[in-house]
Design goal:
Elements: E1 3-11, E2 14-15, E3 21-22, E4 25-34, H1 50-56, E5 65-70, E6 73-74, H2 80-86, H3 101-108, H4 120-132, H5 149-168, H6 170-178, H7 183-186, H8 188-208, H9 216-223, H10 228-257
Antiparallel strand pairs: 1-4, 1-5, 2-3, 5-6
Helix pairs in contact: 5-8, 5-10, 8-10, 9-10
Length: about 270
């Protein structure tokens, strides 16, 4: 079992008269397990504790009661920084740090050994990636907060999954390399997993269209007097266009991103 939650309770952090921190439970006696073999969807109204639950996975916050096990071991016994390289967290609206897109790239790798983020090589690799995506080199000098929410979500999801899985499966990847596989062949399954992760928000939105949510275009056409059938047909086309653009951009980003972990001789960068 990848994760197990056993009788987990998390309360609101309210300061009391005796200086203790307590409050009404946001999560009460939560019990479930995740095997890690398939995506999981958490549904609930606003304020029901979904974000609080997700923050528990890599110890951005800790439970007040109960135990959380990661690979059968109490999550509290793991070194926090080591845990977070294996368990990523991408918020609903990814946060871009102050500064340019390039400085955000540099921040993302600053804790890696010999990250080379201050060398011309790193900047050249970033520009090479952007040119491959048909994006102007000037984006490196743009303020990162100017990126659209969709761009932030897709890039953050794909990059987190790619980075965490390559690090956690290093021994397996090196075994494949030792048997003659190229770096691309050695991480092919990880690349596919990263693309699937980037597609999850789009797929989830497709699942709820017309049932939980009514997109703006379809609603506007119906309110203006158009036939609901015609409005639905147009909305389906738009949704598939969005899904296709997300898939293409995710594939391109991940296909270029994995190369940053290897040398030209198909060796791990130290």
């Amino acid at each position: 079992m990848l994760f197990e939650f056993k009788h987990v309770t998390k309360r609101k952090p309210v300061q009391t008269a005796d200086s203790s921190m307590s409050g009404e439970p946001v999560l009460r006696d939560i019990n479930f397990g995740i095997n890690g073999k398939e995506p999981q969807l958490i549904l609930g109204p606003s304020g029901s504790g979904k974000t609080t639950l997700l923050r528990l996975f890599n110890r951005l916050t800790d439970p007040d009661d109960g135990d959380i096990l990661f690979h059968g071991k109490d999550i509290a016994t793991y070194d926090v920084r080591s845990l977070r390289t294996r368990v990523g967290y991408v918020s609903q609206i990814p946060i871009m740090f102050d500064g340019t897109v390039l400085s955000n790239f540099q921040y993302a790798v600053q804790h890696m050994k010999n990250n080379m983020s201050d060398t011309p090589y790193f900047g050249d690799k970033c520009r090479e990636l952007l040119r491959y995506l048909n994006v102007s080199d000037n984006i490196l000098n743009r303020n990162a907060v100017d990126l659209s929410v969709g761009e932030k979500q897709r890039v953050a999801l794909a990059a987190e999954r790619l980075s965490s899985e390559i690090r956690s499966k290093r021994a397996l990847i090196e075994a494949r390399l030792s048997l003659g596989a190229t770096s691309r062949e050695a991480v092919s399954d990880i690349v596919a997993s990263a693309v699937r992760a980037a597609m999850i928000p789009t797929i989830n939105s497709l699942m709820t269209v017309g049932i939980v949510s009514l997109p703006g275009m379809m609603t506007g056409q119906i309110l203006s007097g158009a036939s609901p059938i015609i409005a639905v047909k147009y909305q389906i086309v738009v949704m598939y266009m969005i899904a296709a653009s997300v898939m293409i951009s995710s594939v391109l980003i991940v296909q270029r991103g994995y190369k940053q972990f290897f040398t030209e001789h198909h060796q791990f960068r130290e």
